[in-house]
From TrEMBL:
Origin superkingdom: Bacteria
Keyword hit for Disulfide bond: no
Domain ABC transporter per the UniProt entry, residue ranges: 2-247
Protein name according to UniProt: Fe-S cluster assembly ATPase SufC
GO molecular function terms listed in the Swiss-Prot or TrEMBL record: ATP binding; ATP hydrolysis activity
InterPro entries xref list: AAA+_ATPase, ABC_transporter-like_ATP-bd, FeS-cluster_ATPase_SufC, P-loop_NTPase
Keywords: ATP-binding, Nucleotide-binding
Gene3D superfamilies reported for this sequence: P-loop containing nucleotide triphosphate hydrolases (3.40.50.300)
NCBIfam families for this protein: sufC
Length: 251
């Protein structure tokens, strides 16, 4: 589904952050990327999603056989890439429901489909809101305005379930969540994933991976993936930290 080859990217001032990322994600897989602060985890998610603050200087990103780097952020979203932000932005005056309706119908339009009917849309909203414990009054509030950290993250997962992307990238969605909110978010992700989509989880903490069990865990340090393994690697990182992996990679 996603193939990244020798990806290099820098910010506007020329500082290189990604220094040769190689990663392949297939349908049905859950991948987790862990690493110390400043290693490039959020940059990688932003580059895949098409954020314009970063310049790709070398390498390739293919998504289902197409060159992702030739597409704008909106085109990537319409192709089925979803990014759950670490810090979701507030949009006063735009309700959660209207935002969702617009996003779904713009994607359907880009795919040559008719708009989703009102009754079908309402049924889908109710089903997914119920799965995440979202109250009816929540849906009429302005997007993320006055939301707690947990409410913002829950809303991100709600958007993911409504949009039903092919690749969902969760950029530290677990940060700032208490254990109950963490479980709700994880339950939403687990209800979403299937053999036809894929999930890329970016996190500092192994605790999220107790609930969203990854097929592969990758350690990112100084702009490169320096170690990959199964779910047991996350437990080892929790117990031992990152220094041993960085030292091992330097040898």
């Amino acid at each position: 589904m996603l193939k990244i080859n020798n990806l290099h990217a820098q910010i506007e001032d020329g500082a290189e952050i990604l220094k040769g990322i190689n990663l392949e994600i297939k349908p049905g897989e859950v991948h987790a990327i862990m690493g110390p602060n400043g290693s490039g985890k959020s940059t990688l998610s932003s580059v895949i999603a098409g954020k314009e603050d970063y310049e790709v200087t070398d390498g390739e990103i293919d998504f289902e056989g197409e060159d992702l780097l030739e597409m704008g952020a909106d085109e990537r979203a319409h192709k089925g890439i979803f990014l759950s932000f670490q810090y979701p932005v507030e949009i006063p005056g735009v309700t959660v429901t209207n935002f969702i309706k617009t996003a779904i119908n713009e994607t359907r339009k880009a795919q040559g489909l008719e708009e989703m009917g009102a009754s079908e849309m309402l049924k889908l909203i109710r089903e997914n809101a119920e799965k995440l414990g979202i109250r009816k009054d929540f849906l009429s509030r302005s997007l993320n305005e006055g939301f707690s950290g947990g409410e913002k993250k829950r809303n991100e997962i709600f958007q993911m379930m409504m949009l039903n992307p092919k690749l969902a990238i969760l950029d530290e969605t677990d940060s700032g969540l208490d254990i109950d909110a963490l479980r709700i978010v994880a339950d939403g992700v687990n209800a979403f994933k299937n053999e036809n989509n894929a999930v890329l989880v970016i996190t500092h903490y192994q605790r999220l991976l107790d609930y969203i069990v990854p097929d592969f865990v990758h350690v990112l340090s100084d702009g490169k993936i320096i170690k990959s393994g199964g779910k047991e690697l996350a437990h080892e990182l929790e117990a031992r930290g990152y220094d041993w992996v960085i030292e091992e990679a330097a040898v």
